[in-house]
Amino acid sequence: xxxxxxxxxxxxxxxxxxxxxxxxxxxxxxxxxxxxxxxxxxxxxxxxxxxxxxxxxxxxxxxxxxxxxxxxxxxxxxxxxxxxxxxxxxxxxxxxxxxxxxxxxxxxxxxxxxxxxxxxxxxxxxxxxxxxxxxxxxxxxxxxxxxxxxxxxxxxxxxxxxxxxxxxxxxxxxxxxxxxxxxxxxxxxxxxxxxxxxxxxxxxxxxxxxxxxxxxxxxxxxxxxxxxxxxxxxxxxxxxxxxxxxxxxxxxxxxxxxxxxxxxxxxxxxxxxxxxxxxxxxxxxxxxxxxxxxxxxxxxxxxxx
Length: 305
Description:
- With 305 residues, this protein is mainly alpha-helical.
- Helices cover 76% and strands 4% of the residues.
- A two-stranded antiparallel sheet has the order 1-2.
- Helix 5 crosses helix 6 and helix 8 crosses helix 13.
């Protein structure tokens, strides 16, 4: 009897160990995902929004039968900015650029330009770079839009004050979702300042509108861009898992430090909001103009799908 009781106790103890180990690994995964989305969730969120808007803009041109107009009206500026966005992050993350065409429309495959690059697959740093290289057109395009405001709009100081406001800084995407009201307030403020009636009489404003529309309409990511971004995400998540596996074993949680760093990103959020506003205004203007001609010719609404 005693022997049987000992065996039963050992089995129970083993099951407790299994459950404890399982719970620990679940904690590691949950902590890693939380940290990842705190740091990169906003890039993914606004990247998706900008992708969908710019894709719809390009579809409006294509479905109206004016895709060549898009190529020559906006592509000659938007495409180089798109490709430079890739190239900048290739350089920053040590990728070797093997070939680059900033603007070279190809009617056979539909490409307007490209950046070909190679990297050391054994380097975590270079593999992480895949995420930023893939999202390069969105990150770099947003930065250029901010610079255009600085150089082209008379009330750039007022716009800069809104952008530099860290009211939206916090725990990244989770905090932003809980504060959509504040985000809407910032968006309205930026829209009113950029499209202020006092700017309409300035030639530099219309130059800004044209350049901004060209850039925003080509923030769309290609399938190869998304693939590059995906491989970088997997590498980043793997690093988070390994780091948290080590730190949580030592009963040390790095989440607090990540959140402190993330509180510095308020201005970046505002720049993304600004880029989204300009991209959406560009889509509306493009769609309305093309819809008029499309309806006159086909007697049907223009689709963007």
